[in-house]
Structure formats: structure tokens, C-alpha cells
């Protein structure tokens, strides 16, 4: 099993190197010719994110999955997501609002959480009419992230909100975050402050 | 808007893949960099950094030839080649480097996952710069080894509003400074303070290290076992475990642990040195010889192979009974080098030479005799002197060394080796007598009332 993971990881690694080369060439072209090709760069980063996410889904759904917890500055993480998504959303006529009131470092898997929130913002952007909001706050024991939009909300059946693979992986990432016996969790609901669905993650 | 003017900064891009180098250069230049130099490999990078330290280093994690960016970073710190102001940014294609950062003590200023835009690079570099600015005064004093001043600065900034974003880093720095200044008890408290907030492997290893320094070996071992079991890719933890095992006299376990990690990090020569020491203590003279020979011929950093290494190599040859090789190593040391040895090194040099070649070594060894009887010596030199004294049949000198060793802090570590040396001379009963005397002395000492108490 680990061998397969190594093969996949090596393939993803090579593909990302190629994508990085493409992105760097586009960045050079933008400067040289004074043009904006940010959507092309966005597509490259999205493709690369998709590759990483596939790999980490494979890794995370195994029994022995573990996280890499590092102290992370939450405000920095939020500005990075804004940098990744704001312009792309603006091109689609959607405003991204980021509201972070967390001042302390927090022990989390920085890369997985960033990726997960990027994905949540992208999804919200697909359903939003004009606005997406990313909010982060904390109390003594818990760090909260909330992503919401002003779209029609999640499709609901009698069994509740339908959860695809992406959400199952997100839930797994949240619950692998443990601290003093407490696990992280994921909450989805409709009727958020902006009127649409919202996605909330609680991390210990 | 960048807080640094990147046009004035010198970048060094380290990557063995031409296309990846080109990508990094293009991104750095788009971010505003004017001067971007390349290093295609490990040695070249060290040469460039040594000669003209760049302001910002972008280093790929995989450098080819069994080398990694992490190893380069460790080597640069080991030789003090990275000034506090230089930014070291690891660049990686996959998430797995995060596992390394999450575990180890020695981390880069930050790491970034490919692909990334020039804007993201600027965002990350700006943050590192802000953090360096926050800790600047502290780092300055720490580097000068003015530990009390460093801690005072840290205390004055860590609870500030700006300090909230760096609270784990502040706690970690505090613990490290206590350890560096020799206050292992305070270091332990600081590391435990971090663990109360989160179970970081590096903080647990810090507790183990602090306990080791306090000679609380059983507890240290328990703590480090937890780290090694939980984070198998945290190789420094394996080194620490091996050191603790050696202090406990469990040399076979130490060698086994080091052997396993050394296979995964074949070009880490500090680890090879440790492996040689463990193998030597474990009586596996062939493994000790092989490890030290590898160090001396392949650790190619200028100045990396020291006098201590030459002595260690000679020691492994002596241990293996290969006296001709031992003599060769010792006699190949330059005269100027031998002239400048400190007493401990002179003791080792002359003792090992006396074993390897009585005719060449004995006179110098005899000349040092009064100093060897009277002066404090590190454990490794004392064992050499003991070996030399037994070889030239100087019983008084040998027994005095054995007594000192058995009553010192490293008694457990060298017990097996010392007993074996006596056994080789058929003098086991004498060694048992020395042990008995040392034990009696300890009891007597323990019964004495505390001064002033």
C-alpha cells in the first residue's frame, strides 16, 4: 500500500513541477508584456490543488493517516486564501470578504487546512450570487472557521445535506485534529447570515 | 505591497533540476528580485553561501544524490554559515515536507509548496521578515551567548500584542536558551509548558534532552521512546535516543537505532560519527571502523573532518586490533596539528600511539604521565589513557583512570568498555576491586552530612 502511495506521490510531484514551470512562464509573460493572465495562473494552481487533494484524500482515508501539526498564524492563513481566491471570484462578479479575529498562533495542519478552506471558498463561489465570506474566530479552547455565501444553499433531502467525497475528506481532516482528547468537527447548514449555506469547522 | 524592497536583495536558488531552477528564478524576478544566483547542488550551494552570503535562499527540498534541502540547512547551521538576517525558504513539490517541519527542531524560516505565484512568495517572505524583526534583539544576544540578556529581551516582547502571533516560537526559544545555558531544569519546565498546550514531538524530545542533561536517564528514555514511536521520520529523535541508550550502557540498542536511521540518511556524517561511537562501545569494532572511515573520506565540507575525527578513526582501528592502520592515521596527522592539540587530545593521541606502536608512542605518553594523573579529562580521553596505560603496563595510571571513570557521570556508558580492557589483560579481579572501592567511597560520601546542614 505504501508503495502505491509513493508512486502516486512521485507522479504528483513531477506534474506539479511542470505546472510550476508553466506558471512561472506565464508570470514572466505578464511582466514582460504588461498583460493580466491571472485566470490562467489560477487554473494552473487549481489543477495542482486538485492533484494534491486527490493524493491527500487517498492518504487521509487510510487507517494510519496522521497530520503534520505546526503552530500557524491564522490571520496569515486567511490572507493567503484571499490572495488565492479574491481576484478569481471578482472576475466572476463575486466579492470575497475575509474577517479574521484570531490573534494567537494555533496548532493545526497548515497545508491541509489552507487547502480545505480554499476548496470551501471555491465551492461557495460556485453557488454564490454576489458574496462569499470567510470568517475565523476563537474562544479559549476552539478555533472556528466559517465559509458562507448568498446562494440558494445546500440541496437537502429527508436524510439531510448530501455529502460528497470532498466533504468526507474535510470531515476526516477536522476530526484528525485532536487536542486533550477533543476532536475537530465539521458542520453544514442552510440559513447562514448571508442567506445561503454555510460550512463551519471547529478545531480544538 | 511588499515590506521589503526585493530589488536590493540577493537571491540564491538551489535546485538540481534545470527547469525547476528556471521556474524559481522567473518567479523571484517577477517578485522584483534583481540579482538571482544559481546553485545546482549541495557543494556548490555551500561554496556560494560561504563566499557571499545571499539575503534570501530558495532551496528545493530534493537536491539529488541522496541529499536534501533539510540536510543542507542543518549543515549550514552546524558551520554557522547562516546569519540571522538571511531568509532560508524551503521549496517543495509535495506535502510530505510538512511532516519533517512538524517534527524536527531545526526548521527553515518557512517552506512553500509548488506551484506558487510571485505574490504568494512575497507574502511569505514579508512574513518571515516581520518575524525576524520581532526577534532581532533576542537573536543577537543568543548568538553572542549572552543568555541572560536574551531571555530578558524575550520576556519583554513575548506577551506583547505582536508577540501573540509567535507564542509557540517564544516558548520554544526560551526552552532552547535554557538548555544552551546549561539550565536543564528550567528547560524541562519550559518544554513541559509547551506540551501542556500541544503535544509537539520536538517539545517532547526537548523534555527528554533536558532530563538527559540532568542525568535522569530512565525518565529521559521513557520520553524519547514516545517520540520515536510516534514520529519514525524524526531522525534527530533517534540520535537522542541513541545518546540516552549509551549513557545507560545499552550500546547494542544505541547501535541498532543509529544503524536504521543512518541507512535512511547515508550522507549525514554527524550521525555516522555517533554510530561509530555506539558501535565502538558495543564492541562491534568492524562497524565502528567502517563508519569512521566513511566520515573521514566523505565528509567533504572544508574543516568538517577534525582532529577529533582522526583520533576517533585511530581509536576504532585500535579497538579492532588493526594497529598498523591506527599508527598510519596518527602519524599522518600534520606536525602542526599535533603541536596544537589540547591536553585531552594529546592524551588520546599519545595513548593510542603507545598502543599502536610502543616504540613511537611510549616516550610522549610517559612524558604526559604527571599531567594525566593530575588533570581532569573528558571521558573519551580517559578511556584512551586507560587503554594506553594497560598496554604499557603502567598499573597505577590505569587504575587511577578506571577509578575516575567509574565514579564519574559516564560510568554506565563506559562500564562495559573498561571491564573489557581489564579482561584483555587478565586483570578482571583488579577491576572488580576498583568497582568495590568506588562503591564504598560513594556510600561514605552519601553518609556525610550536607555542608552547613
Which tags fit this structure?
heterodimer, A: 204 residues, alpha+beta, Heat Shock Protein 90, 2 domains, 5-stranded mixed β-sheet, two-stranded antiparallel sheet, 24% strand, globular, B: 453 residues, alpha/beta, 5-stranded parallel β-sheet, two-stranded antiparallel ribbon, 23 helices, 68% helix
Question: Topology, please?
Answer:
The complex is a heterodimer of chains A (204) and B (453).
Chain A: H1 2-33, H2 38-60, E1 70-73, H3 74-91, E2 95-100, E3 105-108, H4 110-127, E4 131-138, E5 143-149, E6 156-157, E7 160-161, H5 165-176, E8 178-179, E9 182-183, E10 185-189, E11 198-203
Parallel strand pairs in A: 2-4
Antiparallel strand pairs in A: 1-3, 4-5, 5-11, 6-7, 8-9, 10-11
Chain B: E1 10-14, H1 18-30, E2 35-39, H2 42-51, E3 56-60, E4 62-64, E5 67-68, H3 69-78, E6 87-92, H4 96-103, E7 110-113, H5 118-143, H6 147-158, H7 167-180, H8 184-197, H9 201-213, H10 217-230, H11 235-247, H12 251-264, H13 269-281, H14 285-298, H15 307-319, H16 323-332, H17 335-339, H18 343-356, H19 358-374, H20 379-391, H21 395-407, H22 411-424, H23 428-447
Parallel strand pairs in B: 1-2, 1-3, 3-6, 6-7
Antiparallel strand pairs in B: 4-5
Helix pairs in contact in B: 5-6, 6-7, 7-8, 8-9, 9-10, 10-11, 11-12, 11-13, 12-13, 13-14, 13-15, 14-15, 15-16, 15-18, 16-18, 18-19, 18-20, 20-21, 20-22, 21-22, 21-23
Amino acid at each position: 500500500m505504501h508503495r502505491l502511495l509513493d508512486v502516486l506521490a512521485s507522479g504528483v510531484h513531477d506534474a506539479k513541477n511542470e505546472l510550476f514551470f508553466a506558471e512561472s512562464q506565464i508570470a514572466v509573460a505578464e511582466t514582460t508584456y504588461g498583460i493580466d493572465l491571472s485566470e490562467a495562473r489560477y487554473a494552473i494552481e487549481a489543477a495542482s490543488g486538485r492533484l494534491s487533494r486527490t493524493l491527500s484524500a487517498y492518504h487521509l482515508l487510510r487507517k494510519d493517516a496522521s497530520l503534520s501539526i505546526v503552530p500557524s498564524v491564522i490571520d496569515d492563513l486567511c490572507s493567503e486564501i484571499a490572495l488565492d481566491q479574491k481576484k478569481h471570484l471578482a472576475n466572476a462578479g463575486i466579492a470575497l470578504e475575509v474577517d479574521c479575529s484570531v490573534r494567537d498562533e494555533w496548532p493545526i495542519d497548515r497545508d491541509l487546512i489552507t487547502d480545505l478552506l480554499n476548496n470551501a471558498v471555491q465551492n461557495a463561489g460556485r453557488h454564490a450570487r454576489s458574496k462569499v465570506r470567510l470568517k475565523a474566530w476563537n474562544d479559549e479552547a476552539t478555533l472556528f472557521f466559517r465559509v458562507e455565501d448568498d446562494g440558494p444553499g445546500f440541496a437537502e433531502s429527508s436524510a439531510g445535506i448530501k455529502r460528497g467525497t470532498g466533504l468526507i475528506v474535510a470531515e476526516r481532516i477536522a476530526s484528525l485534529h485532536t487536542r486533550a482528547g477533543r476532536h475537530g468537527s465539521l458542520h453544514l447548514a442552510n440559513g447562514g447570515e448571508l442567506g445561503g449555506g454555510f460550512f463551519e469547522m471547529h478545531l480544538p | 505591497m511588499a515590506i521589503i524592497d526585493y530589488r536590493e536583495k540577493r537571491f540564491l536558488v538551489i535546485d538540481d533540476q534545470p527547469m525547476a531552477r528556471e521556474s524559481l528564478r522567473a518567479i523571484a524576478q517577477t517578485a522584483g528580485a534583481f540579482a538571482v544566483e544559481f546553485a545546482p547542488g549541495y557543494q556548490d550551494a555551500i561554496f556560494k553561501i560561504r563566499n557571499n552570503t545571499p539575503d534570501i535562499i530558495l532551496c528545493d527540498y530534493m537536491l539529488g544524490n541522496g541529499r536534501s534541502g533539510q540536510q543542507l540547512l542543518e549543515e549550514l547551521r552546524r558551520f554557522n554559515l547562516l546569519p540571522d538576517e538571511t531568509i532560508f525558504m524551503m521549496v517543495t513539490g509535495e506535502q510530505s515536507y510538512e511532516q519533517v517541519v512538524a517534527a524536527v527542531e531545526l526548521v527553515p524560516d518557512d517552506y512553500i509548496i509548488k506551484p506558487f505565484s510571485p505574490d504568494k512568495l512575497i507574502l511569505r517572505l514579508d512574513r518571515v521578515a516581520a518575524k525576524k524583526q520581532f526577534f532581532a534583539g533576542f537573536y543577537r544576544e543568543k548568538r553572542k551567548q549572552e543568555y541572560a540578556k536574551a531571555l530578558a529581551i524575550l520576556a519583554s516582547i513575548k506577551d506583547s500584542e505582536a508577540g501573540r502571533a509567535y507564542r509557540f516560537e517564544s516558548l520554544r526559544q526560551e526552552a532552547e536558551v535554557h538548555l544552551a545555558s546549561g539550565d536543564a531544569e528550567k528547560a524541562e519546565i519550559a518544554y513541559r509548558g509547551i506540551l501542556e498546550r500541544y503535544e509537539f514531538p520536538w517539545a517532547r524530545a526537548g523534555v527528554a534532552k533536558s532530563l538527559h542533561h540532568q542525568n535522569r536517564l530512565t525518565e529521559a528514555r521513557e520520553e524519547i521512546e514516545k517520540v520515536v514511536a510516534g514520529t519514525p521520520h524524526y531522525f534527530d529523535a533517534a540520535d537522542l535516543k541513541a545518546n540516552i541508550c549509551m549513557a545507560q550502557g545499552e550500546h547494542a540498542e544505541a547501535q541498532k537505532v543509529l544503524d536504521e536511521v543512518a541507512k535512511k540518511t547515508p550522507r549525514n556524517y554527524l550521525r555516522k560519527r555517533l554510530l561509530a561511537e555506539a558501535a565502538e562501545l558495543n564492541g562491534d569494532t568492524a562497524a565502528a571502523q567502517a563508519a569512521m572511515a566513511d566520515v573521514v573520506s566523505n565528509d567533504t565540507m572544508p574543516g568538517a573532518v577534525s582532529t577529533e575525527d582522526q583520533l576517533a578513526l585511530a581509536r576504532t582501528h585500535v579497538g579492532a586490533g588493526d594497529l598498523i592502520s591506527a599508527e598510519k592515521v596518527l602519524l599522518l596527522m600534520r606536525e602542526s596539528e599535533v603541536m596544537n592539540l589540547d591536553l585531552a587530545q594529546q592524551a588520546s593521541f599519545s595513548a593510542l600511539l603507545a598502543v599502536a606502536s610502543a616504540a613511537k608512542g611510549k616516550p610522549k605518553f610517559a612524558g604526559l604521565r604527571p599531567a594525566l594523573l593530575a588533570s581532569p579529562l573528558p571521558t573519551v580521553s580517559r578511556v584512551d589513557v586507560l587503554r594506553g596505560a594497560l598496554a604499557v603496563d603502567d598499573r597505577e595510571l590505569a587504575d587511577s583512570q578506571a577509578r575516575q571513570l567509574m565514579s564519574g557521570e559516564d560510568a554506565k556508558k563506559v562500564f562495559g568498555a573498561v571491564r573489557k580492557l581489564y579482561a584483555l589483560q587478565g586483570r578482571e579481579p583488579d577491576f572488580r576491586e576498583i568497582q568495590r572501592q568506588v562503591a564504598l567511597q560513594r556510600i561514605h560520601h552519601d553518609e556525610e552530612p550536607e555542608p552547613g546542614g
